[in-house]
Amino acid sequence: MIIVKNRILFFCITGALVLASIVSTLVFGLKLSTDFTGGTLVEVTYPNGRPSVSDVSSALDQVGFKGYSLRAAGDKDYIMRSPELSADQRTALPLVLSMGSTTEANITQYTQVGPTIGTELRRKAFISISFVLLCILLFIAFAFRKVSQPVSSWVYGLIALVTLLHDVIVPVGFFAALGHFAGAEVDTLFVTAVLTVLGFSVHDTIVVFDRVRENLAINKERGRKEPFEETAGRALNQTFVRSVNTSLTVLLTLLILFFFGPASTHWFALTLLVGIIAGTYSSIALATPLLVVSERWFAKQTKKK
Amino acid sequence: MQGTTARRLAALAVLLIGTGIGYFVYWSEGHDFRPFKLGLDLSGGTQLVYKADLSQLPGADAADSLAALRDTIERRVNLFGVSEPLVQTEHVSAAISGTAEDRLIVELPGITDTQKAIALIGETPVLEFRMLKEGADLSKATASTTVDQMFAPAIITGKDLASSELQFQGQGVQEAVVVLHFNSHGAAVFADTTKKNVGKVFGIFLDGQLISSPVIREVIPDGTAVISGNFAPEVAKELARNLNYGALPVPIELQYTQTVSGTLGAAAVQDGIMAALWGVAAVVLFMLIWYRLPGLIAGVALLIYIVVTLALFQLIPVTMTAAGIAAFILSVGMAVDANVLIFERMKEEMRSGKNISEAIHDGFGRAWPSIRDSNISSMITAVILFWFGTSLIKGFALVFGLGVLVSMLTAISVSRTFLFALGLRSKTNVSRFLFGSGTRL
After folding, report:
1. What fold, for A2-34+116-304?
2. Percent of chain B at pLDDT exceeding 70
3. Is the Cβ of A62 closer than 8 Å to some Cβ of chain B?
4. Is cis: bond before B317, omega within 30 of 0?
5. Average pLDDT over residues A40-61
6. Which of chain B's residues have a Cβ under 8 Å away from the Cβ of A117?
7. Which of residues 172-211 of A touch B (CB under 8 A)?
8. Is A149 helix (H, G, I), strand (E, B) or coil?
9. Are A252 and B282 a contacting pair at CB < 8 A?
10. 3-class SS string, B130-155
11. Does domain A39-113 have CATH number 1.10.10.60?
């Protein structure tokens, strides 16, 4: 199998990808949405064309709104972010945004998040992602418990974990760039997308590992001696079309969701798209090669003894 | 052949059942019998999350008070004619949010005026009876004295109130007062307290403000109390009415507000349906082109998967959100995964010289462990997502989890039934072509 043979090359590609994602995250930073930071988010649409940013700003300034930001969205919308609004400000808002009823303005979305809820969601996001990773590690170690030769089932689990880390880092880096260039923000849906990618990517990895498991069993049954590299390479070959095809059907649906789906799941679909491409790539070009490398390492260790 | 006939009958039955379920989904949506339940982001409406301050209450009372809180708010929301409101409490443990918190979640479909919604809930008064602390002197209170410094924790709260009425008392110039009638628990507590504390002062608080601080002159066994706060008659009348709708046992504080307009929701539904239709068409087409005859069967299995999940969404019912629709569309792409695994395996078996029937049989058998293991990992993710989520994300997790489960069943059992029903066992060129795939002829 070409990927197993040229694994050094693929490790380099993967390394570059991960490095680029990390640099992107560090340089651009992740923009947290109101969900996580607390505060107010208002989406207002002007059916008859929107006034300029400075007009809306001065209207808001006049009645004492402070610390807000306005960003144009779509053709007719503004998205306004501000610290928590008081009851009076909330009441005044529709009138202010319609420039004192001179133009039609509809508030299509209003979200206000208190600080404790924001903190809680942040914590919950970290706990969930860590918990998913832990559960998957345990599950794979359990599911592959009967395969302990030549590498223990824990190694399968750990490698799955490493590929999953790759699958988290890549969409995060992508999203940081997306945030910088297109104003996308990390919200609960983003966390949902990351968790879904984890579930999907481990799907792929398990299918390849399962084939390795089966090939090992067949070899043992038939008393055939074969280098592990070839057994694993064959498994990759056998599952390659399936991995690509399954990802293709999912990518098809995601592309459609991105182009035709609801506006609120726009970034969500894009995150999933990137994550699933990364996940498919990693389960083919990272998981099995890593398995081969660790087998070699373990073999050397036993020889030393 | 007997076996084939039975298998064909089974396949026909599956088709009929599938069509029946599909018709049920269509019919029930048209006839308002268990139609799809739309989340606030699709139907339009407001969600409010309050923090309930139970810090002043002992443990056993806290649970009661929380239930009373929910009932009172529910009653009030119903009064305003909101259709299908949702009022529920939620406990957040300290491990997650830093400090343990009890919350009240109120969902008001159709109410898209945030301020109105907040005002609607905010009119509910908070009622507390608190004893003046030993040695505390109300006349010495300054602006900086807090209520908690002067008064002991509440003995009677809104949860103990049964009803209230407006009365006029006194000779000559009559004063408007509000008479409270306690429920049996409240009456017992009030009788006991007044018996033990004759001569002492207690405070009646509304929304945290001291309204009056009468001295207990005698035991009050019948469970009534009077609030006299020099009210104007209109104020007293409104207070009595508001108290009649119920009073809150503890103060609540708004933590989270979300309002989505109906038009935005309707657009999301429209887009979601379009995306789902195109998604299904694209997946079916892909399967048909790549896997030919088995691909067609996978397409039929996919359609059956779709009607079964949609029927489940209606029957359970699952609240559909934009994220839920996304999960459903995603699940359509993932549902064929089991079929792809099986078909790839079938091809391999055929290449190794087995005939079609054997290849189908072994293809299913050998693909099963990876289908099982990979789906379990998806289920783990779905469960954790359900825990993580706010109500919108919970919709995603539920749809995703259900989708994984149902698709595993349909992709395996339905496509198996159909493949065997075909009864193909020859090695003719035609069946070779039909079971071939990709670019190979």
Report:
1. Multidrug efflux transporter AcrB transmembrane fold (1.20.1640)
2. 92
3. no
4. yes
5. 89
6. 49, 255-256
7. 188-189, 191-192, 195-196, 198-200, 202-204, 206-207, 210-211
8. coil
9. yes
10. EEECCCCCHHHCCCCCCHHHHEEEEE
11. no
